[in-house]
Design goal:
The protein has six helices and 17 strands. By secondary structure, the chain is an alpha+beta fold. It is globular, with a radius of gyration of 19 Å. Helix content is 22%, strand content 38%.
Length: 291
């Protein structure tokens, strides 16, 4: 089944990040061993897979090229107030509060913060199913402001098991937001929940590569389909299976054959596949293997 995995790019020392999130979230689980991809002059590149509230996440520590910002945040919905209070207190202990954790019209308790590593979190007390849950939330700003609905329709047209859920417009509001823009939206891609909103405020950030989404593919046909669709109409190709869509959101279009080739028990074949991948933009599966 097609799946999408949030991919978080940290600066360095992945084990420090793992221990930090384990101390905050009781159900933060490691999936397998952390892998050392390479040792470079600027530091060690490490990667690991984890699960939080039944959502798979991939972490990588690979240097300070990209910095987290609130354009993509991780939203936690929980129905246990005590647990949510503890999560909020730990996230903000050395972090930054963006919206105070308190009662709002839309929730008995809600807060928005950046943790000490700059990763942005929204936490909300709710009985909406499923709880507890973790959902990536995309904020469409600047030239993308007003395009959240268009983006949701684009994404749900690409992926199987996708659907558009609740869409809330700003309507008349004191924020000088276009009344037709989306204040909150819920949608599913590959059966997984995502959130989105428009924002016309003068934010100092936009989407970048610090958070991307891995599209787990099988075979060249799937790779070609998603790659071509994502880079169309203003998207951009990058390296090693990375690209940006026309809104600036980063994606990794990764065939399962890539991991098979780079993990080959024959070191020569594994190295050949790795070096070939480093020279690619879109992953071409047949070129991962010597003829």
């Amino acid at each position: 089944m097609q799946s999408i995995t949030p991919f978080l790019w940290f600066d360095k020392n992945l084990e420090e990040k793992i221990n930090y999130y384990k101390s905050i979230f009781p159900k933060f689980k490691r999936l397998g061993e952390t892998q050392v991809i390479a040792d470079t002059p600027s530091g060690r590149i490490e990667i690991g897979e984890f699960e939080l509230f039944d959502r798979k996440l991939t972490f990588m520590a690979a240097g300070p090229e990209f910095v987290f910002n609130p354009s993509i945040s991780l939203s936690i919905w929980h129905n246990d107030e005590k647990t949510l209070d503890e999560i909020w207190d730990k996230l903000t202990e050395e972090g930054e509060v963006m919206m105070e954790y308190q009662s709002y019209d839309f929730a008995p308790k809600y807060g928005w913060c950046n943790d000490k590593f700059g990763l942005s979190w929204q936490v909300m007390l709710t009985n909406s199913e499923p709880v507890p849950s973790l959902s990536p939330s995309l904020m469409f700003t600047h030239e993308n402001n007003g395009k959240a609905k268009e983006a949701i329709e684009f994404y749900t047209s690409l992926f199987p098991s996708s659907e558009i859920g609740k869409l809330y417009e700003y309507g008349e509001n004191p924020f000088v937001e276009n009344s037709k823009n989306l204040s909150h939206a819920e949608f599913k891609l590959c059966g997984e929940q995502f959130l989105a909103n428009d924002s016309g405020l003068d934010h100092k950030f936009d989407f970048n590569e610090s958070i991307s989404f891995i599209i787990n593919c099988k075979g060249q046909e799937e790779v070609d389909f998603f790659w071509d669709k994502l880079i169309s109409n203003g998207g951009e190709e990058s390296q090693c299976g990375w690209c940006k869509d026309k809104y600036g959101v980063s994606w990794q279009v990764i065939p399962e054959e890539l991991n098979e080739a780079t993990s080959n028990p024959d070191p020569e074949k594994a190295n050949y596949a790795t070096q070939a991948m480093l020279e690619m933009k879109k992953i071409v599966i047949k070129d991962l293997y010597k003829e």
